[in-house]
Recover the amino acids of this structure.
């Protein structure tokens, strides 16, 4: 029960990596507010966690909407009494909007750039801004921002990570550090997680191509694609008191990809 008595809000929590985080948090004793735009999936996950004896509430949350963030935080506090943990998990990839993948800058449509930046960058800012007052009231908290290896290193053309995606994830990395420095005095920690190649609903299109999948396996020293649980356990560590002296840092979970 590594999160016993804690209250967490997970954006993009209805399926994939976010759902794995929400289920693990509930298993470890946290009350979890699941925020997403996928209402049917979110309500199913809420019911699943409750059936297993956990505490969960689903809220509709478009992370680009400041009012919906305010409502999600209010729901967490009104239902469970406080907010201790925020996981800014919601995100989109280069192929998630309109099927467009623009690995090179001169090929990137402006509207795709704007939409990816809105979700991956602005969404994390809005979530962080909304959560901080509640965490101050609670006496502190932990914010975990899901970035990417693309937020640390430049990705090769054809990798599936276009310039907008990489830039947005780089923004998440630096916003994390700014948050950590500004709010350490309030006992609010903030760290970023940088997954490598992971099997999720968002990557299913690419991973279903045997050649593309094998390229990713071959470029990962551990020799496999990561799972959502590989990431969820790292997020759990950052959410727990086990990481109480860790803030402004990057937790890279990539099978050794960026070590090369």
């Amino acid at each position: 029960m590594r999160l016993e008595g804690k209250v967490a809000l997970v954006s993009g929590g209805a399926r994939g990596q976010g759902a794995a985080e929400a289920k693990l948090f509930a298993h470890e004793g946290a009350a979890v507010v699941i925020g997403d735009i996928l209402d049917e999936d979110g309500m199913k996950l809420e019911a699943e966690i409750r059936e297993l004896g956990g505490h969960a509430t689903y809220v509709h949350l478009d992370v680009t909407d400041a009012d919906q963030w305010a409502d999600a935080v209010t729901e967490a506090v009104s239902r469970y009494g406080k907010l201790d943990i925020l996981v800014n998990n919601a995100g989109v990839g280069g192929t998630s909007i309109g099927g467009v993948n623009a690995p090179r800058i001169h090929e990137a449509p402006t509207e795709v750039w704007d939409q990816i930046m809105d979700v991956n960058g602005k969404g994390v800012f809005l979530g962080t801004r909304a959560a901080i007052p509640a965490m101050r009231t609670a006496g502190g908290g932990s914010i975990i921002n899901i970035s990417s290896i693309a937020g640390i290193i430049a990705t090769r053309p054809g990798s599936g990570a276009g310039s907008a995606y990489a830039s947005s994830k780089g923004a998440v990395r630096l916003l994390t550090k700014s948050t950590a420095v500004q709010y350490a005095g309030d006992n609010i920690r903030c760290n970023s997680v940088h997954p490598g190649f992971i099997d999720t609903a968002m990557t299913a299109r690419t991973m279903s191509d045997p050649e593309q999948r094998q390229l990713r396996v071959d470029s990962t020293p551990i020799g496999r694609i990561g799972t959502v649980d590989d990431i969820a356990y790292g997020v759990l560590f950052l959410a727990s008191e086990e990481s109480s002296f860790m803030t402004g840092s990057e937790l890279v979970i990539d099978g050794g990809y960026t070590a090369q």
